[in-house]
C-alpha cells in the first residue's frame, strides 16, 4: 500500500516537473553532488572541471539505479530513475541561464554552461539546447513514474499475494524432502516414495518413537 500511495503522490510532482520545473528542495542535494563533481574532475583540465559538476550530480542517482537493478528491486530503481530525470532538468535549467547568467552561483564563481557553450559555440542557442534537454528529461521522468506504478500496482505487490515462484521457494526451504520429491518425474515418483532414503525416519508413529505412551 505504501508504494501505491507514493506513486499517486508523485503524479502531480512529475506533472509540475514536466510543465513548470523550477529549482526546489531536491536540487539542494543535487547541488552538493554538483560541487563535489567539480572537485573530482579538476585534475582533468578546465573542460572536465566545468562538466564535472553535471557529471557529479548524475553519478549518484545512476549508480543507485544500477545497484537496485542488480538487486532486482525494480521499484527503488524506478524512483532513482525519477531522481536522475529531475537532476537532468536541473542541468537544463542551469544551461538555459548560460547567456543571461541571472542564477546566483556558489561562491560567485564562473558559470559552468556560459564557459562551456561560449567555448564550443553554443551560447546563442543555450535556451533551445536547454529546452531539448528538458524534453528528454521529461520523457525520462514520465517513464520512471510509469515503471514505478507498474511495480506498485502489479498483482501480488505490497504483500497482497505470494507469487507461485515465491510460494514454491518458501515451501522448498520449509520442506526440502517434499520439494525434492516434487522434482522427480511422475513415472518414477512412486518408486522413489516407496523407498525411504537411508537413515530417514518413516513418518507416522515410528517417527515419534512408537505408539503413544500412557
What are the low-pLDDT stretches, counting only 5+ consecutive residues below 50?
159-163, 188-194, 200-214
Instruction: Enumerate how many helices there are, as a single number.
Output: 9
Helix content range = 55-70%
- Give, in order, the helices and strands: HHHHHHHHH
Sheet with the most strands, sense and barrel status: none
Number of strands: 0
Percent strand? under 5%
Overall number of structural domains: 1
Shape: elongated
Q: What is the alpha-carbon Rg in Å?
A: 29 Å
Distance between the termini: 52 Å
Task: Round the mean pLDDT to the nearest integer and report it.
Answer: 83
Structural class comes to mainly alpha
Task: Describe the overall structure.
This protein has one domain (2-154). It has helices spanning 2-20, 25-41, 46-70, 74-96, 112-119, 126-153, 164-174, 176-182, 186-194. The longest helix has 28 residues, at 126-153. It is built from nine helices and no strands. The chain has 214 residues and is an all-alpha fold.
Topology:
Blueprint: H1 2-20, H2 25-41, H3 46-70, H4 74-96, H5 112-119, H6 126-153, H7 164-174, H8 176-182, H9 186-194
Task: Record keyword descriptors for this entry.
214 residues; 69% helix; mainly alpha
Amino acid at each position: 500500500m505504501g508504494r501505491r500511495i507514493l506513486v499517486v503522490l508523485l503524479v502531480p510532482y512529475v506533472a509540475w516537473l514536466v510543465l513548470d520545473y523550477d529549482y526546489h528542495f531536491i536540487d539542494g542535494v543535487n547541488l552538493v553532488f554538483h560541487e563535489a563533481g567539480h572537485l573530482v574532475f579538476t585534475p582533468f583540465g578546465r573542460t572536465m572541471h566545468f562538466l564535472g559538476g553535471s557529471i557529479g550530480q548524475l553519478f549518484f542517482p545512476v549508480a543507485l539505479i544500477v545497484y537496485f537493478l542488480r538487486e532486482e528491486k525494480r521499484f527503488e530503481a524506478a524512483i532513482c530513475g525519477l531522481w536522475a530525470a529531475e537532476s537532468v532538468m536541473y542541468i537544463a535549467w542551469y544551461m538555459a541561464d548560460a547567456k543571461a547568467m541571472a542564477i546566483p552561483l556558489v561562491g560567485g564563481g564562473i558559470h559552468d554552461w556560459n564557459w562551456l557553450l561560449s567555448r564550443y559555440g553554443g551560447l546563442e542557442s543555450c535556451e533551445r539546447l536547454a529546452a531539448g534537454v528538458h524534453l528528454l528529461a521529461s520523457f525520462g521522468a514520465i517513464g520512471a513514474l510509469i515503471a514505478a506504478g507498474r511495480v506498485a500496482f502489479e498483482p501480488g505487490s505490497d504483500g497482497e499475494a505470494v507469487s507461485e515462484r515465491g510460494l514454491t521457494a518458501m515451501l522448498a526451504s520449509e520442506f526440502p524432502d517434499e520439494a525434492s520429491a516434487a522434482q522427480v518425474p511422475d513415472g518414477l515418483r512412486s518408486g522413489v516414495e516407496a523407498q525411504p532414503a537411508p537413515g530417514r525416519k518413516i513418518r507416522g508413529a515410528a517417527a515419534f518413537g512408537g505408539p503413544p505412551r500412557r
